[in-house]
Amino acid sequence: MQKERTYIENADVAEQPSFGILIHRPIQDVWDFVMDLPQTPKWRPRMSNVEWVDEGDPRVGSRFRVWAKALGYTFRFNFEVTIWDPPHQFGYRQLNGPVAIDSHMVFVEQNGGCRFMIGGNPTSNNLLMKVAEPLLWGTLAKQNGADLIRLKEHLEAEIAA
C-alpha cells in the first residue's frame, strides 16, 4: 500500500497550510466517519475522548470537547465550530488553553475517492508558548501527517474486510 502525504496550500480556508491525503472511499463516507467524533481516537490516538457538547445537529457555533494526551498529562480543550458545510468543510477554533488554534478540514471528491485535508493556524497566548511556537508547529505538522495515514488505512481497511 502506497503511503501518501502531500503538502497543500488551500486558499479556500484562509490560506492556512494543510496536509492532505487521497482516501479511496466516497466523500460522504469520509465525512460521516470524521464527524462521528467518538471515533476520533481511532485515527488521532493522542485524543482519548471527543464529544459534542451541544444537543441537536452540528452547526456553526456548536461546541465540542477533546481530551488530549501531552507531556504525560491529559488536558481537556473546548472548541467551537466556525465552518459547517457537509460534506465539504469543517472549521473550528479552540476556546481555552495556552495556544489558540483555528483549524479546518476540507473534503474534496477526487477520482471516486476523497481528498481529505487537515490543517490549522496555532497562535500562542503567552510569551513562553510564543518562543516554542516553531516547535509547536513542527509537532502539529508531524502529528497531522501521521493522523492522515491512520485515517486512510482505517477507512480503506473497511473496504477490504
* Unreliable residue runs: 1-15
Summarize the biggest pleated sheet: 8 strands, antiparallel
List the total number of helices: 2
Do you know the CATH topology? Alpha-D-Glucose-1,6-Bisphosphate, Chain A, domain 4
CATH superfamily: START domain
* CATH 2nd-level architecture: 2-Layer Sandwich
- Structural class, from secondary structure content? alpha+beta
- The total number of structural domains is 1
Separation of the first and last Cα atoms: 15 Å
If strands are numbered along the chain, what order do they take across the biggest sheet?
1-2-8-7-6-5-4-3
What share of residues is helical? 25-40%
Mean pLDDT: 83
How would you describe the shape? globular
Order of helical and strand elements:
EEHEEEEEEH
Look at the structure and give the CATH class: Alpha Beta
Report the portion of residues in β strands. 35-45%
Query: Would you count the extended β strands for me?
Result: 8
Radius of gyration: 15 Å
